[in-house]
User: What shape does this take?
Amino acid sequence: MILLLPIDQLMKPLTRKQVRESIYRLLAAMKLPVTSWHDGGAAKAIISVVAAIFAGFTEVIALAIRANFLDTAEGIWLTLLAYYVYGVTRIEATFASGEVHLVNAGGGIFEFEPGEFICKHAVTGRQYTNVSFFRLEAGQTLPVAIRALEAGSRSSALPGQITVLVTTMRGVTCTNPAPVVGRDGETDPELRERCRDSLGALSPNGPEAAYIYWAKSARRADGSPVNVNRVWVSKGSSVGHVTVYVASPSGAVPGTIGDDSTDLGAVDKAIRTKVVPVGVTCTVASAVPHPLPVAGTAWVQAAANLSNVQWKLMFDQQIDSYLSEVPIGGYVLTSPPGHIYRNAIIGIVEGASKSVIKFDPVLPADTELAEGEVPVAAVNTLAVQQVG
Assistant: This one.
């Protein structure tokens, strides 16, 4: 007789205790005197070793079984499932890159090979290095291309935040005039969503999921992935026209239509060549940034032993993370337009730590977003009151 176990049981590994108890039950069924065996004896020691080995084996079996299903596969197993079953490659984290401007007000001359120059974020302390050789003359202002030493969005910086020189350069100051942006690696939920979107890309009729999949999966001319995490596709048109808005975690998607070395150009090319049916025209555009400053007072427990600066940094990071995932056009509850809701911002700040007692915002109120708009982080004005 073949015993078929429910799939949810097959996905659960056994503990050492469960294996050990199963062995004792089997031995007792064979009329062996298991109850008379002494603790520390050879028989019980052998059973404990076997239970430990077999419990570890069931963990591998459970992982392998979960790896067969999109909703239960995790980590490297999900990466393999996405690639070999759905043809989708997980997007890895990228290093934040951009420029700093060095101003040499002194009389020194400085030369650095790639990787020799180091500067850092004034608040987070994240470090960046030069990607190519540069020579800074006395009295010169020089733009220098930089790249973060650590991959991911935590190394991103707003304009004017990279101002600290780690490398000693007497008389020299630095700042970044534009954002320096990196992206995190694709999370398991994001990869699952893109795998499902990929099924829509199999249709020759250009369904909404196909536009979403190729917008997120487009690659620049050099093969690197674009930084797009949100897509909005217009509904049916009587004149055969589709509008696609795309957004990055930081808001707008930079680039130029027709230049596939840029993010916006690469997305446009992927959609035109992979999705748009014959007889249909498509306009690809970057979402329009809608700055959303947050102001108010947060009451926190002093027992958390954090400074006001640390609290503000934590709140800024939580707010930025939330805004980076808000859908283009905001959240639509019943009918357009969409909004960013004040209560959601309160929940984000109060949920930053169990030591937050209350957040009382002045800004924002419920904020309406137009079609194609996406919220972006602005300068927050947060007062912190330590209690107790």
Notes: DSSP finds nine helices and 18 strands in the chain. Residues 59 and 279 are 53 Å apart (CA to CA).
